[in-house]
């Protein structure tokens, strides 16, 4: 009989005045100031609603536990934002990955990924969002206390100007949400 996972929900945001050293380099350089949080912090913190980029990493800066396992299906959504006032873009594909990393430069291990090719319902209207779901199967992946969770997003689009990844610090309009399946204690 399968074991039911305990799901933890994380949100991707970008705070302007937050830095975190991890992976042998300043977190602001490697992880674009993107962090995963369990609750949205104070709305008055200086944050950015979206980043004009086609790829971005978000790190969960807190230790998970002394040891944990991811096992099950991670699910959630990401949002692509079009800041253009004149051009409608089309997203042709996207990939989201859940990774782990020790505090070593370039040491990221993929725990699971989801890739989707889009041919319909893939337009991002001007000054609007396209929200895309994902489901990532993860089978018995161990996380140690000296490792951090990283959420990686990349997408292909018909253009690269005024288009980017949404990550507002706004609990009323959630740009990015990830539910991760942690195996129960004693797994």
Task: Describe this structure in a few short sentences.
The protein is mainly beta and 187 residues long. The chain has one helix at residues 27-30; strands spanning 6-14, 21-22, 25-26, 34-37, 50-51, 55-59, 67-82, 89-101, 108-117, 123-124, 128-144, 148-157, 163-166, 177-182. It has a single domain, classed as Sandwich (Jelly Rolls).
Question: Explain this structure to me?
Answer:
Strand 8 (89-101) and strand 9 (108-117) form a beta hairpin. Strands 1, 4, 5, 7, 11, 13 and 14 form a 7-stranded antiparallel β-sheet that branches. Strands 6, 8, 9, 10 and 12 form a 5-stranded antiparallel β-sheet that branches. A two-stranded antiparallel sheet has the order 2-3. It is mainly beta and 187 residues long. It is built from 1 helix and 14 strands; from the N terminus they run E-E-E-H-E-E-E-E-E-E-E-E-E-E-E. The protein has one domain: Sandwich (Jelly Rolls).
Which shape, going by the Cα principal axes?
globular
Question: So what's the CATH class?
Answer: Mainly Beta
Q: What is the CATH architecture term?
A: Sandwich
Number of domains: 1
Compute the average pLDDT. 88
- Assess the beta-strand content as a share of residues: over 45%
State Rg.
Answer: 16 Å
* Number of beta-strand segments: 14
Tell me the structural class: mainly beta
Question: Could you list some keywords that capture this structure?
Answer:
single chain; 187 residues; mainly beta; Jelly Rolls; 5-stranded antiparallel beta sheet; globular
